[in-house]
């Protein structure tokens, strides 16, 4: 790998550094590598991507693990993003701009807790992304997996997120478009 440049890496560097591992992100000029993922994380991403694709209107599209260039030194990779369809300009595209993104979703992993709960939502909100969801692996009273989805909407005057719902078992909302997701499906192959 190349020597770290003075001031850290830039968003453009992610496309040109040879040999970077898949799903490398850039936060505050630092490269962030992904640890091996849990079954919860993988199933949550698949469930959300599939259900959002089914529900999204034609003017929107859904992608998994695509970066969003928030600024010169920030290019995170949300687990799932909903973007305006016209944002897809070529099949070799590796990311989007914040103005293209309608919804960013993070499925929290042990190694990404602080990033998914604090750093990324703060940066997404500051960049003006109108909706953010965070999905976590909760545990029901019987010890079975019981995912929890936290739904946020941008408060435009302060560029911060406000919680609009905490969903157990079922995520049902009308924004950014109507969707109804059985969160318990994470425990099953779907």
What would a concise description of this structure say?
With 190 residues, the protein is an alpha+beta fold. It is built from two helices and twelve strands; from the N terminus they run E-E-H-E-E-E-E-E-H-E-E-E-E-E. Helix 2 links the parallel strand 7 and strand 8.
What does this structure look like?
With 190 residues, the chain is an alpha+beta fold. Helices cover 16% and strands 31% of the residues. The chain has helices at 39-55, 113-126; strands at 25-27, 30-32, 60-64, 67-68, 80-84, 95-96, 101-107, 131-136, 148-155, 160-168, 170-173, 179-182. The longest helix has 17 residues, at 39-55. The mean pLDDT is 92. This is Uma2 family endonuclease. InterPro entries: Nuclease_put_TT1808, Restrct_endonuc-II-like, Uma2. Residues 12-166 form the Putative restriction endonuclease domain. GO terms for molecular function: endonuclease activity.
Features:
190 residues, two-stranded antiparallel sheet, 2 helices, globular, Nuclease_put_TT1808
Topology of this protein?
Layout: E1 25-27, E2 30-32, H1 39-55, E3 60-64, E4 67-68, E5 80-84, E6 95-96, E7 101-107, H2 113-126, E8 131-136, E9 148-155, E10 160-168, E11 170-173, E12 179-182
Parallel strand pairs: 4-6, 7-8
Antiparallel strand pairs: 1-2, 3-5, 5-7, 8-9, 9-10, 11-12
Organism: Streptomyces chitinivorans
InterPro entries: Nuclease_put_TT1808, Restrct_endonuc-II-like, Uma2
Protein name: Uma2 family endonuclease
